[in-house]
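tmp note - Protease
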Amino acid sequence: MQPTMTYEKHALLPEVATQASARAGAGLSWKAKLALAALGALGWFRLDARLEQGRIIKHGHHHNSDWGSFPHTDDPFHFLPCTNATVPPGLDEAHPLEAWMRLYDPNPQHWSRGNGSRSLYLCGWLDVPLDYTNTSDKRVARLAVTKLQHAPERSKRTMIVEPGGPGGSGTSLVWRKAELFAQKYTDDTFDVLGWDPRGVNVSQPSISCFPYDADRDRWNLLTTRFHRESEPREAMLKADAMNQAILEACKREYGDVAGMLTTAFVARDLDEIRKALGEEVVNGYFISYGTGIGQTYVNMFPHAVGRLMLDGTEYVRDQRLIGGFGWAALDNITAAFHDGFLGECVDAGPDHCKLAQPLPGSTSLPTKSDLIKAMDGLFGRLVERPIPAHTEESGPMIISYTQLVSLIYGALYNPLGWDALAAAMHDLLQGNTSMVARMVDSWEYNPALPVAKHSSDELGMLVICSDQYDSPLPPDYDVETNGEGWYLDLWKSMVEQSEIGGNGRFLDVLPCRHWNATFGAPKEVYRGDLDHDLSHPVLLIAEAYDPATPLRNGRRLLREMGKNARLIAHHGYGHSSRDTSTCTDTIMREYMLHGTVPEEQETQCKADAKPYRYTEAKSSAQLVEEWKISMAETQMLRGKTSRRRRV
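out:
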């Protein structure tokens, strides 16, 4: 997978990009220069070679006839028009605003604009206290912020967006979706702002406990083996030892910062963003783990709640419990695989879904039961022996049980990618490995390009484990072995509930076994109730076949929030409401535009179309390309690029 630095992407020759990044970084610290050079070499930024080398702009105000001067007077975000050089200054910069202004490009032709002639992408940053519990600690977290602003005069309302994770990049979500969200939900009357939460991506400190991304791959095949493919105790203890090593490395690298990444601190950061915007309430669209941030925020700051949509709803009480981030996600996964991926394929028929064509040794069309049996047989063969394969990019490889199950679980997040995976599974059952090989042939980094240190993959485990650090231990938890038997039983029960999702979800929570011994208590977690009287009701969206945040979560949250919330029960496939429903979209639009909520506590909405029938048939190459796009969006929601799965 590509790295997760998330400003605008352009294809450049690496040597040109690197030279441009060096010019853009004149006067920056060596760390900032290294980051810019690496990003340029990786082709993620169109760094303009016409920037003047060494130009110093002190509190620069450069005038443009439409947009005025930048940064605007008393702008707490120091917004500049986004180019591919506008990366926030490093925390070690003695004069961060001057370093930032060196990256300002006064030529409006170089600015990143939206499709509307007057809309502009603005890049900035906001310093917030690193430790909200200690006013004498002057350290800061520097939050990267990107905003789509529709006109030189900002709108009266901003829709703040957050994609999930933990570890999802809000700046990336703005680049991908801000124009769609603004038009779809607000008629372009709201500006759209996203931020990288503390520890994530371009925000600083950015948590990366490996020196280079390449180092993660070295251990992945050894430490990520699923229950059915391994001797469970041996496999768990290898993964456990690696987790302990990672947490200890994080402590050496970041010290007490690891205890300042909790969802409660992120909620406090969100309120600082609200205040910096000068708005009385938070209006926003939060997805997946972002709904956990939203639930925490509205109960810590109930007076500052505006029109807030929580889509793909967690129930944050689960995240306070040992292993809760894992076991609370399993309800719908088997049904999503059997009824959705396989069952909808049969219903669509062989003209729409290649996997609905006759199976090997048969001349009749398969039933859903036939496909379930065929997939179980395939899994069993892979447990016994991986399938050899080959890709032009990477040469010889194998397709293992763990890889294939991970591939399927990732696909359940987004039904728009099912056409490609179904075609690949059909080919694999016929003995053709080419499509599946291309899908599993992914890296934490691109081995053909220079390596760089910039992925914040470890952030997720630090947030998950700190949020559950004080969970009461179960009665059968053996403290002397640090719960070895209990975790083995948990893994078995999770896989029995969901073969497709149970393994990855277990590996997400296993690192927490070593949190308390490594870090102790975090600075702050929210342990209050979720039923505060809010200044405005929130809108919850929970999905019937969601493989990460079950509909049950939304209903439990609704019962606790009572009159302070309304719920859309979205009957469709995938994680969050991406399986488009005019019913759901209309309610969300009326809510965001006018603050209108349904009279009923729960409203039923159905998706407009069924999987495999969204579009016309496509070639294998088109299917693989669409697969890559859908998986890129899924990875954004999970907040990392590794094969481990998270909300």
